[in-house]
């Protein structure tokens, strides 16, 4: 490895080791909230704008993943239809409600909202909408980042039922390029998918004790077609992306 590559790996591994301790309690709280929803045949939505939307795709129709997850995927708030304009959309008031209404979120459902900065309009409006209809809100965010830039604005962490602080610095990137004033090596996605997969693994473990864990198999595994087909048939009515 080069020094930079080694530094990035070491930084990320160190952060994950620390989060394993600091997030133990809030991750247990998040797992309990999701487990309660799953046992009530509710859904767990995952929402994020910009790069944070990748957490929603991470859990969708995923080998080893739970079938009651529903990604909130809106092109204008992602990157592939225009990265620059998506940055404008996520800061614009009033756009999220019509996006979420098509998903039919219900009381007792859960929404996981990922926003590293934690101050943009879209994730906060998503949290407000979910709480209005009686859904629980789990936030994955950086308290240090949102605290540094809030300037009196509401933060996602202030309106969530469970807050998972990823511990990342303002700006996300963690490696200083000497003599340039620039930083590289963003880690929010790697941290976010690790945290969310750990939580769902815990939920799946608990559900499996009663034989009620709706887990997808990789398409190339024996028996996958039949198992996955049954799960899709059951969960498609409330997941427009299946």
Automatic annotation (TrEMBL):
The record ties this protein, via SUPFAM superfamilies, to: SIS domain
A Pfam entry, by short name: SIS_2
Gene3D superfamilies per the UniProt record, alphabetical? Glucose-6-phosphate isomerase like protein, domain 1
Domain SIS, first and last residues per copy:
30-209
The identity of this protein, by name, is SIS domain-containing protein
Lineage, uppermost ranks:
Bacteria, Pseudomonadati, Pseudomonadota, Alphaproteobacteria, Hyphomicrobiales
């Amino acid at each position: 490895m080069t020094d930079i590559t080694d530094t990035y790996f070491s930084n990320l591994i160190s952060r994950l080791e620390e989060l394993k301790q600091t997030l133990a309690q809030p991750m247990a709280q998040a797992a309990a909230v999701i487990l309660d929803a799953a046992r009530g045949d509710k859904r767990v939505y995952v929402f994020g704008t910009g790069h944070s939307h990748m957490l929603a795709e991470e859990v969708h129709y995923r080998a080893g993943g739970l079938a009651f997850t529903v990604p909130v995927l809106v092109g204008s708030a992602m990157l592939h239809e225009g990265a620059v304009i998506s940055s404008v959309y996520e800061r614009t008031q009033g756009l999220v409600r019509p996006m979420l209404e098509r998903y039919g979120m219900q009381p007792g459902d859960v929404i996981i909202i990922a926003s590293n900065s934690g101050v943009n309009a879209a994730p906060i409006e998503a949290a407000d909408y979910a709480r209005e209809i009686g859904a629980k809100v789990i936030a994955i965010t950086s308290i240090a980042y949102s605290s540094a830039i809030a300037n009196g604005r509401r933060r996602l962490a202030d309106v969530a039922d469970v807050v998972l602080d990823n511990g990342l610095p303002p700006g996300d990137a963690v490696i200083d390029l000497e003599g340039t004033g620039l930083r590289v090596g963003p880690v929010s996605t790697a941290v976010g998918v690790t945290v969310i997969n750990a939580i769902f693994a815990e939920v799946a473990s608990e559900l499996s004790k009663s034989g009620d864990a709706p887990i997808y198999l990789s398409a190339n595994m024996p028996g996958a077609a039949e198992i996955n087909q049954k799960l899709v048939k059951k969960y498609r009515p409330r997941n427009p992306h299946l």
